[in-house]
Amino acid sequence: MARQAEQNRGVAQWVENKAIEERKATLNAVNKISTEERLTELYRQSVNSSGVRIVPGDKLGIHHRVANYWQEKPFNVLAAMGVPAVAWIFYGRSGQAHLQTQMKVMHTRVMGQFSVIAMLLGLMGFKEYMDRNGKFITEEDANTRVIEMHQVREQLKLRLQHEKDVQDANAQELAIAHAADVAAGRVSTINKHKKPHSKKPDSKNHKNKKNKETTITAHANATTDAISA
């Protein structure tokens, strides 16, 4: 019974730990999705505020394309409109036989200059309007820009992670090399300061040697005294 109760407690604990892990994983996934959604919204707001006007769909209308071209190349539009206008003015004056050629050219120049200046003012005004409100892009183009921003962010994260891994690896190699150098220096220091063991003299032999020297000294003194007597 005790074994069965212990097994039941183990199973209950495992189930509880599993449930906690699943809740954490779910919470992390929800947080990640929420973060991705916020980033997507921020990127979309950045695209909207970058000087563009988003048109629903995946294609621009003819008037949208004309307006974009008008904004990007106003002088090309001016040339395309001015040259036919001046030619039409000259052609209209050529039907008047009572006018001389010089008068026809002068009329064409005056009226042509007026027409071109009026067109230029109109074109520049429309270009200013487009610059202030932004060019037209499709919703698909806007989504593509958002995806590109996500890709740039992921690439930046991968590059930063790679640089961090390289730095950690270099730091680990330096730590290992430093530890090896410290160990080698400690061994050499111990060998350098290690003193050889001196052999202690035998006390018994030392004592015998001392007694022998004393006997010899006494015998020499006795001999000296005998000679002196």
UniProtKB/TrEMBL annotation:
Q: What keywords would UniProt list here?
A: Membrane, Transmembrane, Transmembrane helix
> Is Membrane included in the keywords of this UniProt record?
yes
Renumbered residue ranges of the record's region Disordered = 189-229
Q: Where are stretches of biased composition, namely Polar residues?
A: 214-229
Location of the HIG1 domain: 47-138
GO BP terms in the entry: mitochondrial respiratory chain complex IV assembly
| Superkingdom, natural source | Eukaryota
InterPro entries in alphabetical order: Hypoxia_induced_domain, Rcf2
Gene Ontology cellular component terms for the protein in this record: mitochondrion
Q: Where in the cell is it found?
A: Mitochondrion
Q: Which residues cross the membrane?
A: 75-94, 106-126
Keyword presence, Transmembrane helix: yes
Q: Which PANTHER family match?
A: RESPIRATORY SUPERCOMPLEX FACTOR 2, MITOCHONDRIAL
Q: What is this protein called?
A: HIG1 domain-containing protein
Q: Which organism is it from?
A: Cyclophora tenuis (Marine diatom)
